[in-house]
Structures
1.
Amino acid sequence: MLSVSSAGTTSRQSRFPSDSAAGAGIKEAESRSRQRQQEAEVTPDQDLPQSHSTKNMKSARRGEAGDAGSDLSEQIKAATKENHIRAENTQLMLSYQKGHITTTQYKVLLCSLYEVYKALEEELDSNASHPAVAPIYFPQELARLDSLQRDLEHFFGPDWSGKVIVPAATHRYTQRLREIGKENPELLVAHAYTRYLGDLSGGQVLGKLTQKSLGLRDREGISFFSFPGVSSPNRFKQLYRSRMNSIELTERQRAAVLEEAVSAFEYNIQVFDDLQKMLSVTTETQRDASGFPSSPIMQFTAGVCVALVTVGTGIYFL
């Protein structure tokens, strides 16, 4: 079961500057970023998800070595290119992109997204003054938790927190976010970047596909895709990248952030795959459960089906 968290969002203040201030901030950040020397290749001392291949790790290190220039945002983009493609080509995401998303698929996706953003945003809040987090901390403009709560209530009702179920991959993802929030807050930069900028980019397309596929009116149930605090997504993304590129990191920290960005995509891929398996299992169970009404296993699985709304992911990012 999930618990609702207010996380103090009502008292958050906007940190999104005016057009002139944003332009000055961007120029200043870009000037600092150009002065950086190309980072040397180092091997970070952190573990990656077991599903990471040697190829993925080499990809991150190529970006870390500066193949994409000295800007952290460009290095992350280069390091995660292959992982990004893999995430977009999971079965769940392919169905989504084709407009074949069902209410059931969307609902289980919302459940996992809620857990992920709850962990991410609580850790960002706790580390708001950290030198690596402060430049990219925009709770008023980017926070997704309240929006996800509204969407879950729309589909599950006011007692939604007692009905949702998430796969093991989602728990692994949130555990990682909690871990780095306490031990290595600078690594939160990788997860915030891949999640939020993905939401502001491809996520906007997915929002329109969701509304059309599910026949939703007045954007009810798709608050997750709306950013009322961001008047210009493109301008905001430019500002966000410049702020991120201005973060001062040691060579080892930068290497670790690049590896963590690869990890972020891998965690998301695992979540998508687990959600697809969950949907496949519940679909199969719906065909057979009526023959085993007294079986505890069948009752539990049938309960999962009900929680997903008997017939019955969101993405992230990226």
2.
Amino acid sequence: MHSQCSTLCNNGAVVNESNCECICNEKQNGTKCDCIYPFTGGYCDTCAFVTCENGGIFNATSCSCACLDGSGDPQCKVDQSTTAVSSTITPNGSNSGEYSGICSLFSRHK
């Protein structure tokens, strides 16, 4: 079967034959399915960066960093001189089921 559409889609997207429009995934946008930054690659399934600085934690699914200082910098490059302290608390003598909590302290040094 020959396609009636002349539309060419980018990044592995396919053409909807009923309306000749590209069907983009959640990491693509536009009429031709361009990759949404920071996604890249043949199917927009690769991150443009894979490292987070200043202790940030990388999330491969969303291709983003969770920064300790809460900044919106994509790779946590902005050093806010933040210190993070965490501890886990479990009650002594509890026989009603184990539970724990995490306390975090974030402070900025100038």
